[in-house]
Amino acid sequence: MGSLPGEQHLKRHQLEHILRAAGSIADQSEFIIIGSQAILGTHPDAPDSLLVSIEADLYPRNNPELSDLIDGTIGELSPFHQTFGYYGHGVGPETAVLPRDWSERLTPICNENTYGVTGWCLHPTDLAYSKLAAGRPKDLEYVGQLRRHGILDDHLLEEWISLADQPLKDVLRTRLEIVRRNH
């Protein structure tokens, strides 16, 4: 996660700007937003502690192979990033480990500010699941912040973890326990 001086938190209007730009660059109308900024789909005014990145991790829903084009054009250290202080990080569908049926729970961001481009944002509990799977300290801290702000449904998360394959299930349960102890 890179950052430029003076800008630390990506706000909803900035995510809408990234969607506009990505839609124009890739000539696509739908994107999946999988990183921490996906919280802006269900919580447009999310607390700053949940907006700890200046990037939006996204990929074109129907043509994920165009992610490199997005990353190269509006990604980290691009003129877009240097001009606005935030950027779009083109990723692939394989970037996040997600529970079953995650795509049925997506929340759209689509309005006049996106020029009709839709950003499909992960459900907060799907986001927590993916953060637990990634397991970096910043990811576990993020899950703790979701809990602290009452956004995470612990029971639902436990249910989804119980459906995971065994090695992943054990890892997710251990990491969730760490989060609970620390938050």
Q: Which characteristics define this entry?
A:
183 residues; 45% helix; globular; five-stranded mixed sheet; single chain; 5 strands; alpha/beta
Averaged pLDDT: 94
Largest sheet: 5 strands, mixed
Q: Specify the overall morphology.
A: globular
> What's the helix-strand series?
HEHEHHEEEHHHH
Q: Care to count the β-strands?
A: 5
Approximate strand percentage: 5-15%
Number of helices: 8
* Secondary structure: helix percent: 40-55%
Our count of domains comes out at 2
Largest beta sheet: what is the strand line-up? 3-2-1-5-4
Gyration radius (Cα, Å) is 16 Å
Cα(first) to Cα(last) distance is 23 Å
What report would you give on this structure?
The protein has 183 residues and is α/β, with parallel strands linked by helices. The chain has two domains: 12-123, no CATH class; 125-182, no CATH class. The protein is 45% helix and 11% strand. The chain is built from eight helices and five strands; from the N terminus they run αβαβααβββαααα. The chain has helices at residues 12-26, 39-42, 67-74, 79-84, 124-134, 137-148, 154-162, 166-182; strands at residues 30-33, 55-60, 87-90, 107-109, 118-121. The protein has a five-stranded mixed β-sheet. β4 and β5 form a beta hairpin. α1 packs across α3 (67-74), α5 runs antiparallel to α6 and α5 packs across α7 (154-162). The relative contact order is 0.17. The model is unreliable at 1-7 (pLDDT under 50).
List the helices and strands and how they pair.
Layout: H1 12-26, E1 30-33, H2 39-42, E2 55-60, H3 67-74, H4 79-84, E3 87-90, E4 107-109, E5 118-121, H5 124-134, H6 137-148, H7 154-162, H8 166-182
Parallel strand pairs: 1-5, 2-3
Antiparallel strand pairs: 1-2, 4-5
